[in-house]
Design a protein that fits this description.
Elements lengths: L1 H29 L21 E7 L2 E8 L5 E9 L7 E2 L3 E3 L3 E8 L4 E10 L4
Amino acid sequence: MRRTHRRTRSLLASCAVVAGLLVPAGLYAAGHVGATGAAAPPAPSPEPSGAECRTSVQGSRVVAHCHNPYPTADRVQLHTECARWWDVDADGRPVTVGPGRTVRLTDRCWKEVASAWVTHSVGTGS
């Protein structure tokens, strides 16, 4: 029985040594511990921003309503692509949507509208 106790103790000791060597390497590989041994700070989350726009097409006319519920201004611009090759595609002028404001953007084609969309650029402007 004595031989079994010695084997058990040596097996437990070798497991403890192996675990002691593997845990720091595993934590470093997983990114939980930096080079200085301190945990990395969480990345800052960006502030939500940008107006929500709803675009509708009726015949040759396009209307977009954009509402900005956020505290930063958003510049929106309506783009219209006409279905006919001879009909001129249009990019409306950029409009600033202030916090808590709603704007209405309109455009038209001579004939049918192929597609219409709104682009955003967050920031202040005139």
